[in-house]
Each structure stands twice: as structure tokens, then as C-alpha cells.
Fold this protein.
Amino acid sequence: VINGLRPFMEVIQIGETSCGKPYGFTAKDNCGTSYFPIEFEGVNDSGQGGFGSGFVPGSQLKGCVADDDFDRALGNTAERLLSTALQYQANGACPAPSAVAPKSLAGRGAVIVRSPAREAKVLLR
């Protein structure tokens, strides 16, 4: 979606590095086994592609790096990603890192292995 919009409008990315998936495929059956060979690379209207590693906010695109939080409901202006986006919209600059830093889980006896949105796991010690 990000790469597809780039030729038509300014895209500002708030959050973490995107996952990137510029390749497409369809299943090919062979003797009861399905294979998924890469068949094409997706590009946008300007012919830009090759973003298999995703987009980094503030690097390939304007934007701010910010971790998601799950302590506030979506739409709450204090929710970290929305707050960062609103500050960027108002000032044209990213808020100070301490203003968007994630809460520490050290006192809770838990360790987040990866982004909860991607992994949906919290390991308890």
C-alpha cells in the first residue's frame, strides 16, 4: 500500500519498519504437493519496487519511528502512534524520543520477544 500510494501523494510513515512484501505468487500443484514459486515483483505506477526489507520511517519516507502501545484504545489521542502522528502533523517534526518511548516491562516480570502486533506473545519469567 505504501509503495502504491507514493507516486500519487506524499506518504508519511509513523511507527516501525514495515515488513515489505514486494513479490507475488500463486500455488502450483505437482503430484499432490503445492509449490509457491515467486512469479513477479510488484512495482508502483512509477516503476519503483524492490522493497523486500520494508520501509524505515524517516529514511526512505518522511515520518517518525514510534513503538505501538496497547494501553489505550484506538482513537485515543494519547495512544502512542496517533499522538506521534498528530505532533508530526502540527509541527512537521518528530517528537522527542523520550515522549514516545515504550513503557518499561522490567517491573512486571515480562519480556516482549518481538512486536506484540507481529508475535502476540509475552513470555513471563
Remarks:
- The chain is about 15% helix and 20% strand.
- The CA atoms of residues 68 and 115 lie 8 Å apart.
